[in-house]
Design brief:
30% of the residues lie in helices and 20% in strands. The longest helix has 18 residues. The chain is α/β, with parallel strands linked by helices and 207 residues long. It is built from five helices and seven strands; from the N terminus they run ββαββββααβαα.
């Protein structure tokens, strides 16, 4: 996931990629995301990031419970292998991908399943500054995309919506507007996996 150039002049696209590598909360339609922040993001930015990602998932009928793996009283919840509806998100400074145009990476097995994803904060911050694109808003969208891969599998990329493999300028505009979301089909797939009620799809729409 990434930018090429700066917005308004040389900006071309955001690339979103998935790498192929090698449980359940009490409420239906809920997932738990355990966040390990190796960057030291401010609480304000982190809270806004989580709110944005949660909003995107909520429009697809999925509720997100965030766990701060570095917060006393919550960190204990991170010391086990993720259960069926638990996922680990690691926020790091830099990625180890071949290009700086990649903003995040979901690690999936050959069967398309996965529990772990990285997000590359410095690349996101560089891409959103000094443009009008807010860092927390873009970070929230990137988080939703990468966690989306963990929920939807290796074939999650689509021709529309937040799971597009390449984000062109129009997609970025929709990130600012808050309208780059999961498609109806993706929402149905996630709801089916996590047992959400059929009525939860009201907010989901085709992008």
């Amino acid at each position: 996931m990434g930018f090429k150039g700066k917005l308004g002049t040389a900006i071309a696209s955001i690339l979103l990629c998935t790498s192929i590598t090698g449980a359940q909360t009490s409420e239906p339609g809920c997932i738990k995301v355990m966040v390990l922040d190796s960057v030291g993001i401010s609480p304000v930015v982190m809270h806004r990031t989580e709110d944005e990602a949660a909003r995107i998932f909520r429009t697809a009928g999925i509720q997100v419970q965030w766990v701060n793996c570095q917060k006393k009283g919550e960190s204990e919840s991170c010391h086990h292998s993720p259960l069926a509806d638990e996922f680990m998100l690691h926020i790091v400074h830099h990625g180890k991908t071949r290009t700086d145009l990649v903003f995040g990476e979901a690690f999936l097995g050959e069967d398309g399943s996965g529990k772990y994803a990285d997000v590359f904060f410095d690349r996101i911050q560089d891409a959103s500054n000094p443009t009008e694109l807010d860092t927390a808003q873009l970070l929230g969208a990137v988080v939703a995309h990468e966690v989306g891969h963990l929920l939807l599998g290796s074939r999650a990329h689509s021709s529309s919506g937040i799971m597009q493999p390449v984000w062109e300028k129009e997609c970025l505009r929709r990130v600012w507007m808050g309208s780059l979301l999961f498609t109806r089909k993706q929402a149905q797939s996630m709801q089916g996996r996590f047992g959400a009620s059929p009525g939860a799809l009201v907010a989901a729409r085709d992008n």
